[in-house]
Prior knowledge:
By secondary structure, the protein is of the alpha+beta class.
Amino acid sequence: MAVTAGSMTKEDLRERAKADGIEFFFAQFVDMHGKPNAKLVPMSNFDSMMDEGAGFAGFAAGPMGQTPASPDVAAMPDPSSYTPVPFKPGLARLACNITVEGEPWPYCPRTILCNAVERAAALGYRLKVGIELEFFLVKERDGQIVLLDDLDTLDQPCYDMKGLTRNYEFISTLSKYQNGLGWGNYANDHEDANGQFESNFEYDDALVTADRAIFFRYLVHAMAQERGYLATFMPKPFANLTGNGAHLHLSLWDPSGETNLFADEADPRGLGLAPIGYSFLGGIIEHAEAVLAIGAPTVNSYKRIGVGAPTSGATWSPAYATYGMNNRTQAIRIPAPGRIEIRAIDGSANPYLAAAAVLGAGIDGIEKDTNPGEPNTENLYTLTEAEVAARGIKTLPATLLDAVRHLQGDAVLQDWLGQGVGESYVDYFVQTKKAEFNEYHAEVSDWERRKYLTLF
Length: 456
């Protein structure tokens, strides 16, 4: 049985929900895209929901390895994921694992991460994850999506105090909600792009953080829509502005969660990282192209990766599979002793799948004692293609199709994401994403017409 986020029992949950005045539950799960799906279940049906799950037609929910002829799926709640919805008194969310005919369903992203976490635990490792989720606040005007704040026009708006003040009600309320849930919101800022914000909460076990990331995105969307506008975590909603990242901060701990195995004050490179940490990041570099297919899973993702500077003067998005200290021009940063930051992950990532992918790649690096080489200290944006090639630096994939082709041939991630029904989950993911790319590629854009209509 897959591990869950904690030890709360069904009866613990019943008492907690009663004390909180909960009248309804969202029995919630996600599809491949990370889209939250739910049924609203009244408290009067608590026992049935907990014992039998909430039933869904899986094919209708999104990519879940189902067809219209498939049996219904049952969303089985994890009591430890209990999350009251802050602005809807009487309502709480329960993250669910999908089962089919009583058995865990291998196409359920949460189940995939549970299995990966359980596998790592058997090896003596406990993954802890922090996530930085960037988003834009936008509105529709004359059929176009534009920034919500008409006054947000600075060339370099990052950390702009006035921009935060104009959006104080939204951002401060978001902060209060996180702290009310016990997440430990510690900072909120105006990000590098006009109209872009970030609201950070403390790291935790991988499954806990992934559950919170799903709820955080839901929370931001729902709050914006209740106020009559929109939020977006789309990787690159505006061509001239910095995109939305979802940087993952990773560390491996002992099974008790007391000892950070990545931390080493005697690190001769001076980054505070233990040998096991270097091997872990070496594995991520080795599998970087395949990991990116999971962590940057949309055609739009590759308009964020490796592009030129937007109006703020810097792209802040990596183009190369390298690592260094406080250097944001590469895919992996060591921002502080004892942890690594994967900067290539973006706002469209399914956090369960992304965490499972980096865990599998990193542990493969540990098992093979992979050497990541020396840290990079240069501004990689200034290197020529010839200089990059001469140094043996891997360039990140340029398109979703390029990335998923790498993923398809990656035996390690094939293994760690598990088997589906007559296929691996990776093969199913690749098939789905190739179809998505082909649908995109079949569109004829306005740019193509402007460029080619009368050129020849």
